[in-house]
Amino acid sequence: MKAVHFGAGNIGRGFVGLLLHEGGYEVVFSDVVAPLVAALDAAESYTVHEVGDGGTDRVVEGFRAISSAESPEAVAEEVATAQVVTTAVGPTVLKFIAPHVLAGLRRRDPAAAPLQVMACENAIGATDTLAGHMREHAGADWEQLSARAVFANTAVDRIVPGQPAGAGIDVTVEPFYEWAIERGPFGESLPQIPGAHFVDDLGPYIERKLFTVNTGHAAAAYLGARAGKDRIAEALAEDSVAAGVAAALEETSALLVAKHGFTPEDMTEYRRTILGRFRNPALPDTVQRVGRQPLRKLSRHERLIGPAAQAVERGLSADGLLAVVDAALDFRDPEDEQARQLEGLLADLPPRKFVEQVTGLEAEHALAGPVEQLVARRRG
Ligand SMILES: NC(=O)c1ccc[n+]([C@@H]2O[C@H](COP(=O)([O-])OP(=O)(O)OC[C@H]3O[C@@H](n4cnc5c(N)ncnc54)[C@H](O)[C@@H]3O)[C@@H](O)[C@H]2O)c1
Ligand SMILES: O=P(O)(O)OC[C@@H](O)[C@@H](O)[C@H](O)[C@H](O)CO
C-alpha cells in the first residue's frame, strides 16, 4: 500500500506520516522545500519524539520524498498508483496541491480502486476545498476524473511545535493525538490508519476541535503575546491569560452544547484535557507559531469570529471571544507576512471596511458593530 503525503512539515512528519507508516503504507512525502526533500529522501528513518507524560519515541521508516516544484511528473505518477493522498500544507496552499492530485487522477487506471483523498488542515471542510480546486482545474473532465477518487473531510489534533534549528528531520510532538475522518465516502473500504476513528457526521467533531483546541490556543497566543510571553505554557502560567482563555472557552463550550448536543460535563472534561496539553512543560511551543497568520485566524468561519458570530446569533455571550479578537489585532511578528499585513490594514482601512474585508462579517451582523469598535479604538 502507498500513500502520497503533501507537506512534509511539522504535522506531516510528526503525525500524518507517522500514522500512515504505522498503518502499513509506504509514505511518499512531497514538499517544495528542496533541502527538506533531499534530507528526507536520503534518510532511512526519522524519529518522532513524544514529550510529556506517557510519551515515547516512534520510528518512521520505508518512506521516500519528491519535490512537487522540481518533479511534478514524478509526483503525478506516484499519485496515480497510490491508495491514499493526504495533505498538511495549510488551508491557503490547497489550491497549489490540486493540480498535482488531478494530474495523478488523469494517469490513474480507471479500473483501480478509488484514490482516498484526505486534507488534514485546521479548517472546516478542507478536503471539500481541495476537491473544489481540482474541479476548477479539471473543467469538463471533472465528472470522469472525480470517479477515480473519494474525498473525506477530517479533523486532526496533535500539537507539533516548530522544530529547533539543527533538529534535522526528527520531530518533537506531544503524546496526545486524535484523528476523526468522515466514514461515508469510503463505503466498506476504510483506509488503514491505526488510532483514527471514522464518524458518520464530522461537523460536531471539527467544530469541537477548531472552536476549543484552536480557539483556546489562539487565545493563549494572542493574550500571551500581549503579556510579553514567548511560550504557550508560560503564557498560561499568567493568571490574566489563563482567565482570558477560560472565558473564551466557556463561550465556545456553551455554543457547542447548544448546537451539537455535547453535554456540559463532556465539554468541561474536554477543556480540562486541552488546557493540560497546552501547559505541557516539555513542549517548546511559541505564541508566534500558534498566533501565525492572524488574518486567516480572524476570518469569518475561523476559530474566533466563527464561534463568536454563532454565539451572538443564539443570544449567547461572546465577550470573552471579543477580548481575544482585541488581542489578535495587537499581534505583531515581523517574520509573519499576515501579521505585517494586519498592521497595515489597521492603519489604512476605515474600521467598517476593515471589519468587512478581514472578518467577512456582514454589516448588519450583531457582531460587526462590537468588532468595529475594537478597530476604531486603535484609530484614536
Ligand atoms: N502543527 C500542528 O500542531 C498542527 C496540528 C494540526 C493541524 N495542523 C495543520 O496542518 C497544516 C500544516 O501545519 P504545520 O504546523 O505542519 O506547518 P509547517 O509549516 O510545519 O508544514 C507545512 C509544510 O507544507 C509545505 N508546503 C508549502 N507549500 C507547499 C506546496 N505547494 N506543496 C507541497 N508542500 C508545501 C511546507 O514547505 C512545509 O514543509 C496546517 O493546516 C495546520 O493548521 C497543524
Ligand atoms: O495550525 P494553525 O495555524 O491553524 O493553528 C495553530 C495551532 O493552534 C495548531 O497548529 C495546533 O497546534 C493544532 O491544531 C493542534 O491540533
Secondary-structure content class:
alpha/beta
Query: How many separate domains make up the residues?
Result: 2
Overall, the morphology is globular
Strand order of the main beta sheet, please? 5-2-1-6-7-8
Measured as a percent range, the helix fraction is 40-55%
The named CATH superfamily of the largest domain: NAD(P)-binding Rossmann-like Domain
Reported for the largest beta sheet, the result is:
6 strands, parallel
Strand residue percentage: 5-15%
CATH class of the largest domain: Alpha Beta
Q: Can you tell me the CATH topology of the largest domain? A: Rossmann fold
- The CATH architecture term of the largest domain is 3-Layer(aba) Sandwich
Distance between the termini: 61 Å
Q: Mean pLDDT score, rounded? A: 97
Pfam families: Mannitol_dh, Mannitol_dh_C
Organism: Nesterenkonia xinjiangensis
Family: Belongs to the mannitol dehydrogenase family.
EC number: 1.1.1.17
